[in-house]
């Protein structure tokens, strides 16, 4: 599962880290050829550590925070560098590559924070401080993007959310609030100066009566006494999130016309009866298109020119009246749909590549598109029907999955990083910076 929330969180962390760094420390670090630590196949130099310490001090000053001692900062920054290098070792192992457009966008966001509107001006500004500064920054941003990519792959694969987890969440007060559930509830409260046992006995009788009737006034009149008060009302249709937590937790699991058990709280004994449950959130309607297509791919024997000629020939035959199903079954290179006359079933926007999506949404129902190209080859498509599909339930489940996934994310990141460090060869060559050696333990 790869959600936008996770991606934005990592991107925000990356941007904050880079913006808060001092460009002057970035450009004026002097190389010192002394290895402080070895992480896998890479080395951490003293100059790397000095730069990290300088940046940490700068961030603390900008945030008006107390600056730890040099030794404390050195230990903290070395730990961060070790973890970063361990992740970069994994990046190399998995052969991850940075996307140039994402890299340009990330650097551009930092440039805007510095008041620059384009990368060329930003590069000139940085390199005026010291030649090569822009390249250093760009390389660091690239490293962070690769670490982001790695963490997304590794952490997302560890998150497990079952259908039962989603069902349980949607029944909870938080889940009801997230999805906008509203309930209509009768609320009765039994209180007074009578002994606790007598109050509980009366509350049990009230609950039995409420199971049989919704007549609040009659129940009140039947069970109230000089030292026992029975108060009740129909709460109307209201959001579960607006109810007291003790009561909301009980209502969320009720079925219509069910009552809760006795709820003993400080101000008395409460009983709730669910009369109705509704979705207050607006219906989520998604356009869907019943689509079929013909795909011609290039291959070792089909050149791009041949593929274009073939798709044009098929288009001309369709225009002349040939059967779409027959031509798709005969010529289409899409094994998943060719045998069924090119039928893709109901397709929602976002399921296909952008070029296909756009043609699908633009073409009138019943018409055949002109040939168009995507990363998969040349296509002709026809939209046979269009509908608005109610995706409210699916949307609610996706929202629940996202909330549950975010809950797991932080703990899974921590767990993954601990495992990564434990499984990476690490040698700290400066004993004063090694917590284990400082504590008298063997490395």
From TrEMBL:
<dbReference type="InterPro" id="IPR050280">
    <property type="entry name" value="OMP_Chaperone_SurA"/>
</dbReference>
<feature type="domain" description="PpiC">
    <location>
        <begin position="286"/>
        <end position="385"/>
    </location>
</feature>
<keyword id="KW-0143">Chaperone</keyword>
<dbReference type="Pfam" id="PF09312">
    <property type="entry name" value="SurA_N"/>
</dbReference>
<dbReference type="GO" id="GO:0030288">
    <property type="term" value="C:outer membrane-bounded periplasmic space"/>
</dbReference>
<dbReference type="GO" id="GO:0003755">
    <property type="term" value="F:peptidyl-prolyl cis-trans isomerase activity"/>
</dbReference>
<keyword id="KW-0732">Signal</keyword>
<dbReference type="InterPro" id="IPR023034">
    <property type="entry name" value="PPIase_SurA"/>
</dbReference>
<dbReference type="GO" id="GO:0006457">
    <property type="term" value="P:protein folding"/>
</dbReference>
<dbReference type="GO" id="GO:0051082">
    <property type="term" value="F:unfolded protein binding"/>
</dbReference>
<dbReference type="GO" id="GO:0042277">
    <property type="term" value="F:peptide binding"/>
</dbReference>
<feature type="signal peptide">
    <location>
        <begin position="1"/>
        <end position="29"/>
    </location>
</feature>
<dbReference type="InterPro" id="IPR000297">
    <property type="entry name" value="PPIase_PpiC"/>
</dbReference>
<dbReference type="Pfam" id="PF13145">
    <property type="entry name" value="Rotamase_2"/>
</dbReference>
<keyword id="KW-0697">Rotamase</keyword>
<dbReference type="GO" id="GO:0050821">
    <property type="term" value="P:protein stabilization"/>
</dbReference>
<keyword id="KW-0413">Isomerase</keyword>
<keyword id="KW-0574">Periplasm</keyword>
<dbReference type="InterPro" id="IPR027304">
    <property type="entry name" value="Trigger_fact/SurA_dom_sf"/>
</dbReference>
<dbReference type="GO" id="GO:0043165">
    <property type="term" value="P:Gram-negative-bacterium-type cell outer membrane assembly"/>
</dbReference>
<dbReference type="InterPro" id="IPR046357">
    <property type="entry name" value="PPIase_dom_sf"/>
</dbReference>
<protein>
    <recommendedName>
        <fullName>Chaperone SurA</fullName>
        <ecNumber>5.2.1.8</ecNumber>
    </recommendedName>
</protein>
<comment type="function">
    <text>Chaperone involved in the correct folding and assembly of outer membrane proteins. Recognizes specific patterns of aromatic residues and the orientation of their side chains, which are found more frequently in integral outer membrane proteins. May act in both early periplasmic and late outer membrane-associated steps of protein maturation.</text>
</comment>
<dbReference type="InterPro" id="IPR015391">
    <property type="entry name" value="SurA_N"/>
</dbReference>
<keyword id="KW-0677">Repeat</keyword>
<dbReference type="Pfam" id="PF13616">
    <property type="entry name" value="Rotamase_3"/>
</dbReference>
<feature type="domain" description="PpiC">
    <location>
        <begin position="180"/>
        <end position="276"/>
    </location>
</feature>
């Amino acid at each position: 599962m790869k959600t936008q929330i996770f991606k934005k969180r990592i991107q925000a962390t990356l941007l904050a880290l880079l913006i808060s760094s001092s460009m002057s420390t970035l450009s004026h670090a002097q190389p010192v050829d002394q290895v402080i630590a070895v992480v896998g196949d890479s080395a951490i130099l003293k100059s790397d550590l000095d730069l990290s310490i300088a940046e940490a001090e700068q961030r603390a000053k900008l945030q008006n925070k107390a600056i730890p001692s040099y030794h404390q900062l050195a230990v903290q920054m070395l730990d961060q560098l070790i973890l970063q290098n361990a992740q970069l070792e994994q990046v190399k192992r998995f052969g991850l590559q940075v996307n140039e457009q994402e890299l340009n966008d990330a650097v551009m966001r930092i440039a805007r924070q510095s008041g620059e509107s384009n990368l060329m001006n930003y590069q000139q500004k940085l390199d005026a401080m010291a030649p090569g500064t822009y390249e250093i920054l760009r390389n660091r941003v690239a490293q962070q993007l690769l670490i982001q990519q790695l963490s997304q792959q590794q952490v997302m694969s560890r998150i497990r959310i079952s259908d039962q987890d989603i069902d349980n969440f949607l029944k909870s007060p938080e889940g009801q609030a997230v999805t906008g559930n509203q309930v209509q509830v009768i609320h009765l409260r039994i209180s007074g100066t009578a002994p606790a046992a007598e109050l509980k006995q009366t509350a049990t009788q009230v609950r039995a009566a409420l199971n049989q009737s919704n007549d609040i006034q009659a129940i009140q009149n039947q069970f109230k006494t000089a030292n026992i008060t029975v108060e009740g009302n129909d709460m109307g249709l209201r959001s579960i999130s607006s109810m007291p937590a003790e009561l909301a937790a009980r209502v969320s699991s009720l079925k219509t016309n069910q009552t809760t058990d006795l709820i003993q709280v400080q101000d008395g004994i409460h009983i709730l009866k669910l009369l109705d449950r509704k979705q207050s959130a607006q219906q989520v309607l998604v356009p869907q298109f019943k689509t079929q297509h013909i795909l011609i791919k290039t291959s070792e024997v089909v050149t791009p020119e041949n593929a274009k000629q073939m798709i044009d020939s098929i288009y001309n035959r369709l225009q002349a009246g040939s059967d779409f199903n027959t031509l798709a079954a005969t010529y289409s290179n899409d094994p998943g749909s060719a045998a069924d006359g090119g039928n893709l079933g109901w397709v929602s926007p976002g399921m296909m590549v952008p070029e296909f999506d756009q043609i699908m949404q633009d073409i009138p129902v019943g018409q055949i598109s002109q040939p168009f190209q995507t990363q998969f080859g040349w296509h002709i498509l026809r939209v046979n029907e269009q509908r608005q599909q109610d995706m409210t339930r699916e949307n609610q489940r996706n929202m629940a999955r996202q909330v549950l996934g975010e809950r797991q994310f932080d703990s899974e990141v921590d767990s993954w990083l601990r495992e990564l460090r434990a499984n990476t060869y690490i040698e700290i060559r400066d004993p004063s910076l090694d917590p284990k050696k400082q504590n008298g333990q063997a490395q």
